[in-house]
Amino acid sequence: MTPATAHQTAGPYWHMIDFPEWADLLRADGPNAGVEGDRITLTGRITDGDGAPVVDGLVEIWQAGPDGAYEAGFHGFGRCATDNDGRYRFTTLKPGPVPGLGNATQAPHITVTVFARGLMKHVVTRAYFEGEALNATDPVLTMVDDPARRATLVAKPAGAGVWTLDIVLQGEGETVFLDV
Amino acid sequence: MSDPIPYRRPDPATQPPYDAPSYGSTHKRHPKQALLRVPHTLTETSAPRFDQRFYATQADMSQVGGRGALGERIIVAGRVTDEDGRPCANTMVEVWQANASGRYHHPRDQHDAPLDPNFEGRARIFTDAEGRYSFTSIKPGAYPWRNHWNAWRPIHIHFGLHGAGWAQRMITQMYFPGDPLLALDPIFNTTADEAARNRLVSTFDLEITKPEWALGYRFDIVLRGRDATPFENA
């Protein structure tokens, strides 16, 4: 067996693979044009251990479609560059509940992945949706005992269809990152 | 429906740590809390399918509109497999790099080296049924950075891959053989295992080299394999 190739940082100059339209999963003429569902915006700021905005981050999302299935009628991939305030912003459809292991059901969630200068490997977290009944029994959320830590995985409503999830890379309020 | 087979967990020595003191940008950006190890569900074992109607192939970085970029033309080719040697077919490979002078086509790169109007520095290719890929480019230049006094990055090409599961997602860098800067580079040297580091270094390959045209380099990439034992036993 040959072990997997080592990750290396994306560095600060990855924007040659930034295609801003990919942040809109519902873009006209894109893979999801015409797919029906609950249209949402997922946005938030990414900050470092000093509270400074991460202005050179590459954020990717991965999600199921409104029916809870991956890549079956909905292409659940997006990419976004953080702006000068550290903010990312995606337009997408709200995912449905996803099958877990055994008979478990996972609450609706979007996997959020951050690459950046200073991250030798990307970090992975999830955005759940506040107020979702299934959150109480979700297999990942229920692994986090501390309510304040658990809250870092739950996006908050911020107006019609807008959900906010800030990501703290380090220190006070540090996001729960997943070892996947 | 039966549970998906999880991906194998890496030997930590073969991967870089988040906290790498010699690489200054990690100081305020690495998580300090332990990561939460989650079992692999469909969220981790499925991945985007990149339809080439929406993600068009672009395999030649060595020219723009038929006008050749400055520098030494190269061909980079290799195979993408998993840890068990199985080919990763139809895998999207994204590539980006600095130009021959060591400057990126990017507004934030202020290194005092010339831009080349005929070099954009990005490509997108898909592996074939055997996991093979190939693209044409220009040998990138070394460039300084401010990590420490008189710091220079070894010449490198960035690679990004999506596998068959989100847990296989990875971005890495390919280096060139014989580069004296490798021994001095904090990023390259954060990975503890020497063999793992050396697998990031491409090899000169006369079979990939095209006569009267371009030098060839081989760079094989390995994505995580599947675990032999299902997680439900854990």
What does this structure look like?
The complex is a heterodimer of chains A (about 180) and B (about 230). Chain A has one domain (about 15-170): Protocatechuate 3,4-Dioxygenase, subunit A (Sandwich), CATH 2.60.130. Chain A contains one helix and twelve strands. Chain A has one helix spanning about 145-150; strands at about 40-45, 60-65, 75-80, 85-95, 100, 105, 110-115, 125-130, 155, 160-165, 165-170, 180. In chain A, strands 1, 2, 3, 4, 7, 8, 9, 10 and 11 form a nine-stranded mixed sheet that branches. Chain A has a two-stranded antiparallel sheet with strand order 5-6. In chain A, strand 7 (about 110-115) and strand 8 (about 125-130) form a beta hairpin. Chain A is globular and about 40 Å long. The mean pLDDT of chain A is about 95. Chain B has a single domain (about 40-220), classed as Sandwich (Protocatechuate 3,4-Dioxygenase, subunit A), CATH 2.60.130.10. In chain B, about 5% of the residues lie in helices and about 25% in strands. Chain B is built from three helices and 14 strands. In chain B, strand 10 and strand 11 form a beta hairpin. Chain B starts with about 35 loop residues before the first strand and ends in an 11-residue tail after the last strand. The model of chain B has no long low-confidence stretch (mean pLDDT about 95). The interface between A and B is large, with 68 and 77 residues. Chain A: Its EC number is 1.13.11.3. Chain A: This is Protocatechuate 3,4-dioxygenase subunit alpha. Chain A: Belongs to the intradiol ring-cleavage dioxygenase family. Chain A: Keywords: Dioxygenase, Oxidoreductase.
